[in-house]
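Annotators were shown the component list below and the corresponding predicted structure, then asked to write short factual statements about the assembly.
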Amino acid sequence: MTATSIAVLAGGISLEREVSLRSGGRVADAFSDRGHQVTRLDIDGELVRTLETGGFDVAFLALHGSAGEDGTIQSLLELIGLPYTGPDVLASSLAWNKPIAQGLFARAGLSVPDRVTLTQQAFREMGATAAVDRIAEELQIPLVVKPATGGSSLGLTIVEDPVRLPQAIVGAFSYADVVLIERCITGTEVAVTVLDGQALPAVEIQPKEGAYDFAARYTPGATDFHVPARLPEQVADACARLALAAVDAVGARHISRADMIVDGSGTPWLLELDTCPGLTETSLAPLAAEAAELPFPDLCERLVELALRDVTATS
Amino acid sequence: MRLDTDPYLSRYATRVTGMSASEIRALFAVASRPEVVSFAGGMPATDALDMAAVEDVVSSVIRDAGALALQYGGGQGRPELREHLVEVMHHEEVPGHADDLIVTVGGQQALELIAKCFIDDGDVVLAEGPTYVGGIGALKSHRAEVRHIPVDDQGMDVDLLEDALNELRREGRKAKYVYTIPNHQNPAGVSMSLARRHRLAELAEAHDLLLLEDNPYGLLDFAGRIEPSLRSLVPDRVVYVGTMSKLFAPGVRTGWIAAPGPIRDKLVLLREAADLCPSNLTQMIVERWLATQPWQDQIKRFTELYREKAEVMLAALEKEMPEGVHWTTPAGAFYIWLTVPAGIDTSDLLAKAVGRRVAYVPGRGFYADGAGGAQARLCFSYPELERIPEGVARLGELLHDELELVRAVFGDDAPSPDPRPSGPATGVGG
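Structure shown to annotators:
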């Protein structure tokens, strides 16, 4: 592609700042190597002015967490009229809120784990504690407790003993005012990246020890990945269809990553859709792209082309 | 196809296999943003230095001896600097001669070299609980088994130390050394009482112990009090570590070890294998700082500033903290150690704290065994004086709010936090 002036947005004040800086650094290096003019921008009070006056052709979003993934920055970029990579405002805000996204997926007939959503208010003002026992009864142990928003497994706990459930809920409330408690599906963990309406090969995730938690995600070598996932063809197809349907359900353009678990019977269950997937060296979307013979710099350029294409299409 | 995100994995030494990415480190990336009032970093107020004087010192080193300053030096460190460091020790009534000293790259290199010198896989080291993050890091990187000895307001509980020593004897094992920070301990902010120092010296004789005395903060007592060093009590049983990080500046990365001769010789060889020699440039800067500047006055200025900041933080804690929160009252240095009521886990709470633009170091970082979930370290030395009340108010509001939530969720049966491993809480200064 022709040389372009690209603002790579990374950092921010979300809890995933460090991960975002790693994604952004890698993206910026890839663009520099390809001869593009790259400016790295962090979030600060001057961001809008900088974006308006910087003479950029496009903004590449490597901002994970709140403000980067929830529609906030997307909305600003639309106001400014600067093309940007990744899903638009509505898709971002829908996918960011896991209970809403899961509800939409269920409504679209996709298989999502049984779940309960609880707010801090329910505990503070309505005595929700009295109903906590029902959660384990209804959903069955083990349970996954996670904040309704945010990524990188921050605040996520797998509860195997119902006695531990309240602690896990309080822990998740550190990250969001709402928690999502799901039946824990056991099986093969799989991530399917969808790039511009095409499902890339599924990546199978196999942590060497324990769960795919923060350390397993970001310590090189702590997790084994298999690309494509070691799944029978019809199961792999079902995973791809599920990811495409999830992307459709929220209307996510350009790139998203659907996280799912394939249970013992070969049924994939959708856990969440990440509209700003990580781009670090241990991240899943770049692994999938590489398996589809799209090396990392090509993936980055492709996303910029999509951003420029879509702005032309809508103007 | 199996993809390897770390194709070098099979080549690593066993000691690095446990090193992994950590949530806490990731949260500190946010804590360093200017919006956040951070009580996390254990950093001195270098803005309280007389920068014109520093500038003179630095430029005079280059002007007068540039070629030497930019050359390699000896592995033990410059004799001229060691003479001055001995003066610093004598100022605190710690005995020593220039010959006993090895100049290191900050106190941290000293702790690492000492661990490297003594620790084989699985060797036991006894350390205060809680203790300095970087001390634990140095021990863990050499695969030591760290056993903690609890600390109270009199410092390390030496009776419990004796119990631990007896327990080891029953196991047929021996501690390689006892790691202690006797003065204004990091993170607990307490000092070892005189009686306990003497008792510790007795135990060292009775149990044939080696003591690692880490003393970054001894000269930062708010009242100018000086307690006898362990090195003055049992000199042959002490490896002493000092640093200029808190007396001048951490940016010059100058610390030192004072050790009995045979240990000193081994440490010099180890250091030469690690990095040949300390930087001549920074050694000469420190040397000239100590030779030409009123460094004792600078320490007084630092101490006065820290005393003022401590008072402001203590007053703010008194005003803002909910019932059931306890904290230590420091008589010097940098730190207050906070204990929160049952049901609150300070590791989990850090995310919410950062969301409210205040940061601390969760207590688990200061234990090798996953304890400390109900504690947090607050450092008052670095944040600007005016921002301390605001930061404490944010923390107070957060804890009030969290306690309300905990009561709503657990009623009166809130559990204490579980021991669980913490990622390294490094990257936050001292």
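Statements collected:
1. Chain A touches chain B at residues 13-19, 21, 120, 123-124, 127-129, 152, 154-155, 166-167, 169-171, 173-175, 203, 214-215, 217-228, 281-282, 287, 291 (CB under 8 Å).
2. Chain A is about 40% helix and 20% strand.
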